[in-house]
Amino acid sequence: MRNEEVGKNYAEAIYDVAEKQNKLLQAMEDLKFTAELYEHNIEFREVINSPSLDIEVRKKIVNGVLKSTIDPFTVETLNYLIEKGRFFDIASINGEYQKIYNSKNNFVEVEAIFAIEPTEVQKKKMVEKLEKSSGKKVKLKIKIDKSIIGGGIVKIGDKIIDGSIRRQLDMLKSNL
User: Fold this and answer.
1) What is the pLDDT of residues 139-173, one digit of tens each?
2) Under a CB-based contact definition with an 8 Å cutoff, are residues 96 and 7 in contact?
3) Which of 158, 157, 128, 122 is nearest to 142 (CA)?
């Protein structure tokens, strides 16, 4: 089974249980936190993936490391992933859970890339325009990339609007 498919299947199951327990937002935040920890903390990742450690030992480690940080529901979920040998899919599961949550709650994630940080007023106007045009609540994530020189790039799902000066210069160059 492909990684995306596994992630989607587990995310749907987690979403269903979280919904019944009224923990949708908590589960989303906890999965994101855990996925980032797994990605950035090499020691944690190596211990969780270690075939030389018994499953119960790995579960105790997760409980010890995360119990004071995340909800017991999510700790239980992570223990289940360890039992099934699927903890390494946490990034995919997190990504799919985010998509399900956003879809069911009428959110759209928008990534905007600029050469400099926009002001709060500019961000607010951008969100208002995007919400009006999409008919959805916008979760705006700003990234700074000085290489685009000026203007900006907006990513809404699979759609990319590239209004960067870097792109315009590249287009001019290719037309010469």
Assistant:
1) 899 999 988 888 889 898 778 888 888 787 788 77
2) yes
3) 122
